[in-house]
Amino acid sequence: MSTTRPFSPGDRGPEPSGASGASESGVPATGGSDEGPAAAGEPGGGAMPSLRPMEPVEPVESAASAEVSAGRQVRRLVFEGQSGVVPLARDFARQALYAWGWLPAATADQRAAAEDVLLVVSELVTNACLHADGPDELWIACDNKVIRVEVSDKGTGQPAPRTPHRAGRPGGHGMFIVQRLCLDWGVMRTPGLAGKTVWAELGAPA
To answer: Cα(first)–Cα(last) distance of the chain, in Å?
Structure first.
């Protein structure tokens, strides 16, 4: 599996090992799309390992499944045959946040952290709808006060925030929002398999 992180997380501290501060071509991405040209990956992948196994997962009877592994709580949503995938994904993520104690929020900071997770889920799924013919799966996990979200699709493009970001121009805002809200994010590809997985990690309030 390979990972690309075309942009640094800005003011969120030092870059993790292997992360770059520019696009794969060395030139910041421009234009109105959240997906640029496909690019080769870099090592890395965030604070916790990928939620998706290296080998294809066996089909599940229902659209959603859950597991607890090595202290990490993981939930998976399969979008095949589903309609209204963005609200479906938000509802699925909200249920996970309730199960993991992020909701109901006791403070404004906790409420904001939960809303950030729901917004990132919405943006990643919407991006897959706009640029990759829709998402295949959503994985969400909670581990050591970090929420990791992964959205897989069959797209070949490379998600990237528009640079420079201009709030008044249409398009290109989804990955900018993800970049601003998350501790880290990136793209994983498996050699020999079509598509990609876009991942993002968010931290709980202190």
So the answer is: 32
Q: Name the residue type at position 159.
A: P
| Bridge partners (DSSP) listed for residue 159 | 35
Euclidean distance between CA atoms 197 and 206, whole angstroms: 29
Nearest to 170 by CA among 134, 132, 130, 121: 130
The answer on pLDDT for 144 being more than 60 is yes
Report the mean per-residue pLDDT for the chain: 74
135: which residues sit within 8 A by CB, 6+ positions away?
A: 79, 85, 89, 124, 125, 128, 129, 151, 152, 153
Residues making up the chain, counted from first to last: 206
175: helix, coil or strand? helix
CB 175 within 8 A of CB 123: yes
Alpha-carbon torsion angle 56, 4, 9, 30, nearest 10: -120
Q: Do 6 and 26 contact (CB within 8 A), yes or no?
A: no
- Distance between CA atoms of 49 and 38, rounded to whole angstroms? 23
Q: Which of 158, 154, 153, 129 is nearest to 139 (CA)?
A: 153
Which residue in 183, 90, 77 sits closest to 136, CA to CA? 77
Rounded-to-integer distance, Cα 88 and Cα 94, Å: 10
- Considering the entire predicted model, what is its pTM? 0.70
